[in-house]
Amino acid sequence: MKFSYVMLPDYPLAESLKSIQLADELGFHAVYAADETWHKDLWLLFAAAADKTSRIKMGPSVSGVVLREPSLIAQATATLDELTGGRAEVVLSSGNFGLLAQYGMDWSTQKPLSRVKEGVGVIRTLLDEGAITHDGEFFTYKGLFTFARPVAERVPVKMGAMAGPRSFQVAGEISDGCHLALGYTREAYRYMYDNMKIGAERAGRCVDDLDIGAWCVVTVGEDSAKAKEAAKSVVGLYASSMPDSLLERNGVSPSEMKPILDKFVAGDLAGSIDATPDDLADKLSVAGTPEECIDKIREMQEGGANHMICAITDAHLVRTFMGREITGVPTVDEQLRLIAEKIMPAFA
After folding, report:
1. Which contacts qualify for 144-148: CB closer than 8 Å, 24 or more apart?
2. Digit-coded pLDDT (tens) for 168-199
3. Could you give the dihedral angle defined by the CA atoms of residues 71, 75, 78 and 83, in that order, rounded to the nearest 10 degrees?
4. Number of H helices and number of E strands within the chain?
């Protein structure tokens, strides 16, 4: 199983650059970031990190093809690939529905999966050929070309998904893999794997050759209670984007989640944390000692996941998003070291 670090780029940039350098030194597969207006720009951050790293891959997980036009994603990806000497990856989705609402867009009218599917084709073509003529349902180009060219023989283009089953099937059929956000059980990944297999077989491919990523909230520390407190603090933040079907595959009923989300949506962030039972927080995070995290990750691996993508939660993140001060939780860099030294060897 590969291990990667996915950041919300909301830290001081100098700190983020040091964390990227550390992840590179520790042997992480990739560092990803959310491509959303809410955060600092990941493309500029990764460009700055390119010559400070030597091995780690970089790119968005995810970049949304509604707000960011696919030809511009391809241009940025190719440029980053040249800067990094062939280490760019890109993971696509329709985007964060909450963010789209702030742009006055109703996601249900955007035909999200069809748009992403077409976007994957656009980006694949531009990366591979440098030019495109295309008359599609969402995107049209007449002899569009770019001198932004990747140096890698093939830049991975993947999809991000949460609900399924069609999104997983499409990812298996047309992309280089899929990152499932916020799945935490064997059942969640077996559902993903089985549907990706349907798509892969439709295209004459083997699903086991694809990236099957587990994008998860992770807090690891030697003090289990402190680590779980940090993860619990952001359950409402992340669960607000989870469809009911994924909640259920995680062993959580939508009715259990409703009191938490009601407080979160109303802006009562402290109340959403207080309303989160410990056992529910455990179901919706990978948190605790390294040994506890290994057990949870192994369960997801048994479902079919082959790539652990760690959305590390620390005190800074909890303070920034939830306005709550917590103590005794390792920093991002300390958690990167714990993952590399005490968790990754169990999956080597």
Report:
1. 144/71, 146/71, 146/74, 146/75, 146/78, 148/74, 148/75, 148/76, 148/78, 148/79, 148/82
2. 999 999 999 999 999 999 999 999 999 999 99
3. -160
4. 16, 11
pTM of the predicted protein model: 0.95
Instruction: Report which secondary-structure segment, H or E, holds 46.
Output: helix 42-49
Name, in order, each residue with C-beta under 8 angstroms of 182's C-beta and a sequence gap of 6 or more.
Answer: 162, 215, 216, 217, 238, 239, 241, 242, 246, 250, 284
**Strand 30-35 to 2-7 pairing:** parallel
Q: What pLDDT is recorded for position 94?
A: 87
> Which of 48, 44, 30, 41 shows the shortest CA–CA distance to 336?
30
In this predicted structure, the answer to whether residue 45 has a pLDDT above a threshold of 80 is: yes
Distance CA 312, CA 256 (A): 25
* CA atoms within 13 Å, Cβ hemisphere of 44: 6
Question: What is d(CA 37, CA 195) in angstroms, rounded to the nearest whole number?
Answer: 31
pLDDT at position 269:
87
Handedness of CA 130, 135, 136, 140 (dihedral sign): positive
pLDDT digits (tens, 9 = 90+) for 250-282: 999 999 999 998 888 888 988 999 999 999 999
